Amino acid sequence: MLMRGGTSKGAYFLAEDLPADPADRDDLLLRVMGSPDPRQIDGLGGAHPLTSKVGVVSVSADPEADVDYLFLQVAVDRPEVTDRQNCGNILAGIGPFAVERGLVAPGDGETSVRIRMLNTGELAIASFPTPGGRVDYSGTAEISGVPGTAAPVVIEFPQGASPLLPTGRVRDVIAGTEVTCVDNGMPVVLIPAAVLDVTGYETPGDLEENLVLADRLREIRLAAGKLMGLGEVGHTTIPKLSLLAPPRDGGAVTTRTFIPVRCHTSIGVLGAASVAAGLLVPGGVGEGIATVPAQSDRIRIEHPSGFLDIETGVEVGSAGSAPVVRRTAVVRTARKIFDGTVFPRPAGITPRDTAPTPAPARPLGGNDGSAAR
User: Fold this and answer.
1) C-beta neighbour count of 6 within 10 angstroms
2) Hey, which residues does 155 pair with through a beta bridge?
3) In the prediction, which pLDDT does 318 show?
4) Which of 59, 203, 219, 360 is most solvent-facing, going by the fewest CB within 10 Å?
5) By the 8 A CB rule, do 331 and 309 touch?
6) Separation of alpha carbons 113 and 12, rounded Å
């Protein structure tokens, strides 16, 4: 099933319809999505990391969950599939997909699906309308980065076991730059835009063309990965890097987020959840930049195509105790685009075989010929 989840788009599969061996599965998905090829002309992918995603769903053996969800990022112009990160946008479609495929019995009016996110081991609860026991994608909820309106999918994230501050410090100096490393569902490095000699209001395209900025961000990300306990991150998409600037449209902060080389045209759900929580930690780099509401748990994160509202709260105990996230929730939308059979590129045929000059590789910002459902 091809679905839009939040501001991303991807192919959703039942785990049983894909090869059990990860290498065979990844090979099939590359051929399904049309990678490696900058245009993904021979597959379902949309020539951008935000439209080259996969969700794999199965009934969960965990008594606390209804379904298991594995997110896979398929690289666009590299033969690479990675499960090193999660995706909160594709997550928005997991509950409806589980009902569509009969993995979860729908309620009459609304259905809540408990989802175990296999990439991180954390839980999410997605609630969405199911009048008459059928998923209804129409509605009046509007999210930035998506034209029109759709039914709301309310996603709540119970408190996870991971510390909010992975390094144990509110601020770290990495590559001569003061940052705050946070993880509220997605490892993110918060960086004041001004210290990188940019405003934070540039377009994603302009930021991607700034080679000096790219070098500094790469240096920060590689060092931050080790400090955050992620190990060598040179070939992964985490941690994300989010540049912070003062808000311009009534929100709490303006962001430009790298995933990790491409600049996000909006912001990921879990990335925004980490940014919002990070802004609430006293002493973080967001102080003096962000305008945090005093009487509300709703934090509006501005991004290149609009905004995303995160409801969250952080408790800070006595001196020396680590801050703890009380609650995180977000409203997204999802829509079923296509349900059918995809025919992957035949095994053994790659764009390199059909093009005389292969396109240059770009890092991620991702054997039979049978069809995958």
Assistant:
1) 27
2) 126, 330
3) 57
4) 360
5) yes
6) 16
